[in-house]
Design a protein that fits this description.
By secondary structure, the protein is mainly alpha-helical. Helix content is about 75%, strand content about 0%.
Length: about 280
């Protein structure tokens, strides 16, 4: 009797996981499609869409951009670092506990990717500060032309970003996929990112990770889903659905209220905190 109940629960968890993964995948694809199709849609001779006008300029919702070390990108680094440390402590305590292997296997890659994510934002904030200093210098010197463009990423920069950002996050997303295939995909998406306008970078990164992760989840063999049926159900519900919904809110309601609450740091916090909650629940 107890065996039948356990099997019934396992099947229920697996079906709920299939539905949750399909919902996240659909929302991620819809988000990417809407950005591509409607970010610059013209209506009545003017460029209008349901996306927030300020968000459309950079692809992020930024608070306090001109305040050194306190912009949304600066606080992203602070939040990502703090919660990565928290996750690392929990991992150290729980990694050898029975039943925690499936979720614990993801943790090192999530920590590395999250820290890389945070420091990438800090680099953006650093470049803003450099631009502001250059503008002030040019104004004091009476320059008539002010250059505000960021330098193009170097080959070395792209290699480092591929290794410390894309590979660990894709490895965490693509469960049971061999590392060599993850490495190949990391190189491909890094190459693709070099052709992205800056305002599309956020959409590109979110779309690649969510679509890859939840396509992979849905394609897992039944025995793999049943083996970790609870984790299979909880992962999309707790660690992915909040992220994709927060992405929609940031893009649509930036100036309405999202920016005043912290801007893009809320999205970054959602990523690591959602995974923390998933890990705790397992």
């Amino acid at each position: 009797m107890r065996t039948n109940k356990k099997k019934s629960n396992m099947i229920s968890f697996r079906k709920a996981g299939d539905i949750a993964n399909a919902i996240v995948l659909t929302l991620a694809i819809a988000y990417a499609a809407c950005v591509v199709l409607w970010i610059d849609r013209e209506r009545d001779g003017k460029r209008r869409s349901f996306f927030d006008e300020q968000w459309k300029q950079e692809g992020f919702c930024i608070q306090h951009k001109n305040i050194p070390f306190w912009s949304s990108f600066d606080t992203c680094m602070y939040v990502d670092t703090f919660f990565s440390i928290c996750l690392g402590i929990l991992y150290r305590c729980w990694k050898d506990h029975p039943g925690m292997q499936t979720s614990s296997d993801l943790v090192p890659f999530v920590i590395i990717g999250t820290l890389a994510h945070g420091f990438a934002h800090e680099y953006e904030a650093f470049m803003w500060r450099q631009q502001q200093q250059q503008q002030q210098t040019n104004l004091l010197e009476g320059a008539t032309t002010i250059t505000t463009e960021e330098p193009e990423p170097t080959l070395l920069g792209n290699i480092i970003f591929c290794i410390v950002f894309w590979f660990p996050l894709l490895k965490a997303s693509l469960i049971h996929v061999h590392s060599k295939f993850v490495a190949i995909m990391s190189i491909c998406v890094t190459f693709g990112m070099t052709y992205m306008e800056e305002r599309y970078v956020f959409t590109y990164i979110q779309s690649v990770l969510l679509i890859a992760s939840h396509t992979n989840q849905l394609m897992l063999p039944l025995e793999e889903k049943d083996k970790s049926s609870y984790e299979y159900m909880v992962l999309p519900l707790m660690s992915a659905l909040p992220i994709v919904l927060t992405g929609w809110v940031e893009a649509i309601y930036c100036t309405a209220f999202y920016q005043s609450l912290g801007g893009h740091v809320l999205y970054d916090a959602c990523i690591i905190v959602s995974f923390l909650l998933y890990y705790i629940s397992c």
